[in-house]
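Model the whole thing, not chain by chain.
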Amino acid sequence: MRFRGLLLGDIRFQFKYGFYFLYVLLTFVFIAVINAVPAAFKAKTAAVIIFTDPATLGIFFMGAIILLEKSQRVLNSLAVSPIKIWEYIAAKVVSLSIISTTVGFVLGVAAGAGGIASVALGTFLGSVLFTLLGIIIAAQTNSLNRFIITTVPAMLFLMVPPFFELFGYDSNIFNLYPSNIVLRIIAGNAENWLLEIPAVAMWIIFFYVIAHGRVSKMLRSIGGIKL
Amino acid sequence: MRALISSFTQFWRQISKDSMLLVVCVSPILAGLAFRFGIPEAEKLLTSYFGKSAVLAPYYLLFDIFLGILTPYMFCFASAMVILEDIDSSLTNYLSVTPIGKSGYLLSRLVFPGAISALLSFVILTIFTLTNISVLQNILLSFFTACIGVLISLLIVALSGNKVEGMAIAKLGGLFLLGVPIPFFITGAERYYAAVLPSFWVSSFMLAPSIWNAIGIVVTIICWSGILYRWFKKKIA
């Protein structure tokens, strides 16, 4: 019940601040771009667009979301309420994943991608990973500019290896790398599901444990004193 | 003037403290290095792979324009984020009743950073250009791209009430640059659908320097800045 309230609150928040409007608009632009490329490259272009935008929207917006909650003292209220940290994190992850997965699905359809379910699953998993990473970084920053700067190395760390793989550089080192698996699933290139899905699930648990610690610390230190 | 300089110094200190200043100065240099040395190498690989005489070479000017726009875009994005922080902390309300006033605040937070970014953009383009554009073209490109950077920050601040909306509008602001590649890829009359974007005219002017393209740049920049400045003033009222 508490989780449902938090989730609806986050969805309402994202709707109010134009996330849905923005992504409707961006989806049209992305579809125009996909339609502009030759048919042979459509699926690959769609995979790159999905991986670099809707799948990563969590990390892009999380700094602003958490910093706004800090400045509007929303976190002060949450800190003294009976909500659990997992509920706070899950509400953010699920609400943003709804947008990501829907946009990923629409772009997959527009590109005529073969496995639409695979595109949607890959987008969802990417969204969960990047949103958790956004929470990890945002929970310990106090300004938007600092958040943006901190995301740069994190983004490079996660975004560069999948592109090496996508453009032909095949290395076993990145077989179980989270973002490589995500892009592989989005692009419909995943072959070893029994290994890849548990691997990405392990990465999500790993990111979640860190995010839990960071949010817990953030909520305990609200108001200037550490509890 | 002292108040303006003091306000600008405060802005400068704020972005230095966040290391944002370092990032906005270093990343165009890194991009310049990647463009200057990476793209000709990629061209060699692509031409041999596809067996063509040129693949990327016809678009070197496009890379130059993007490089020219990068510094102002980053500078003005940083200043938009600082303004949003100021609005969230109600600092703008206090500053607008000091000797700086609304226009002074705008000058110190947008026009000064825009001017510095134009200067940096000129230097970056001089060093890393792929097409050996003339000094006059470089000056004009740096000036116009700085104007576009200022327009994007105005757009971010004018249309958003807080940081979250600011980030959403910043994403939308990227569409302002959508006009840059259009003259390179669309030659028919349908390219004029993008005529409301100053970036379209800047790109057209760099491809074919004509009085009409210059008028297009000036008119779109004046129209957009007039509309956005009115909204911006309401925002910091």
